[in-house]
Amino acid sequence: MINSSVDKLTRSTNFLRFLGQHALIAQEESPSTAGEEEIEDQKYHFVSLMLNLVNTFLYMVNTYIIVPTADDYSVSLGAASTVCGVVIGSMAVAQVFSSVYFSAWSNKSYFKPLVFSSIVLFLGNVCYAMAYDTKSLTVLIVGRLLCGLGSARAVNRRYISDCVPARIRMQASAGFVSASALGMACGPALAGLLQWRFKIYMVTFSQSTLPGWLMAVAWLLYLVWLCISFKEPNRATEADDTPHNRASGKTKCGYWAS
């Protein structure tokens, strides 16, 4: 309590706090009591937190891995090179809508939204990769829209806010920001390595389609890991914690907008 008061008076900000605030994830202002810490510990599961951070990383990779090749991909389908802006931006537009229903869904479950997100992202990447062989720009854009509709970043933030104990919430928030930044950096780098071209039966693998196939495999593996290892938090303990959240001026609906 003394350290917290000194910190407020001096307005000092360490690196982890800066990253946590950048993630727009609420942080406890007052120290938790022993009972509240026990409730938080019952909801916390380290592997589930890691799965949320991996989901964040993969989604950001998925967003930026097509940037180096979207231009050539659009031209190969008979569209103007400027259409690549629509291909890249359609995912972000669809994410606006996914934030609404995923945040509402997370009121009841964290596991089911993550499973749904993984399936939709898998299908979206398959559509993106298959657009070359179907010679359809529509399939390409639909694939990217599906990827945007599978964005579970609202669930990832909500899980950290609700299920991670206050004593490590700032570190988890920093991990969320770091996973996002790492994904943004790895996406174009991976695209630069996928410079092969070959064909298996009627399916073409090239620098334009390989990002879609790679991410489809990544989401499929993630889905298997999710189904095996994710632990759904105890909603009974979360309900018990609601009066504390109200007293501190926080409600569940306050997290979805971020």
From TrEMBL:
Subcellular location: Membrane
Location, primary (coarse class): membrane
Gene3D superfamilies: MFS general substrate transporter like domains
Residue ranges, annotated region (Disordered): 236-258
Membrane topology: Multi-pass membrane protein
The entry's keywords: Membrane, Transmembrane, Transmembrane helix
Keyword Transmembrane among UniProt keywords: yes
Annotated transmembrane regions: 46-67, 79-102, 114-131, 137-155, 176-198, 210-228
A GO-annotated cellular component: membrane
Keyword set includes Iron: no
Entry superkingdom: Eukaryota
Gene Ontology molecular function: any one: transmembrane transporter activity
Protein name per Swiss-Prot or TrEMBL: Major facilitator superfamily (MFS) profile domain-containing protein
